[in-house]
Description:
Blueprint: E1 7-12, H1 22-31, E2 39-44, H2 51-57, E3 61-67, E4 77-81, H3 87-90, H4 96-105, E5 109-115, H5 128-144
Parallel strand pairs: 1-2, 1-3, 3-5
Antiparallel strand pairs: 4-5
Helix pairs in contact: 1-5
Amino acid sequence: MGSLMKFAIVGIGNKLKADDGFGPEVIRKLKKIVKNDILLINAGDVPENFLKEVVNFKPSKILIIDTVEFKGKAGEIKIFDSNEIDFKSFSTHKNSLFVDYLKKSLRCEIKLIGIKPKTTEFGKKMSKEISKGMEKAVEIILTQINY
């Protein structure tokens, strides 16, 4: 398990906005599985507040977990390289400054593991589609970090 690589996993989202809570919920699940050698951050909807922590950790690979708007069905999961997408238009959050800063500060691989939300309406519960996709997302992440 594990390797010489250092991994940082950042879950982004707001649990009060239905499916938008996907990122933080994935981090909660990962905390029960992975060891302390992996940086796990529940960034809520303010990932920029955790830039210093991520940069100081000096990861070899960063995985950002978030809801993402793309063509597909609710609950579908896609993996994007940081240069593949425009975070301003794809993510349900405005992560472009967060990712741009990480790219400039670190020489590491950055990927976005995104799930297509059904709803991000305030006060609603997470949809069944996203709940079902949660375990698959955890499996994908564990594969990405060689766990």
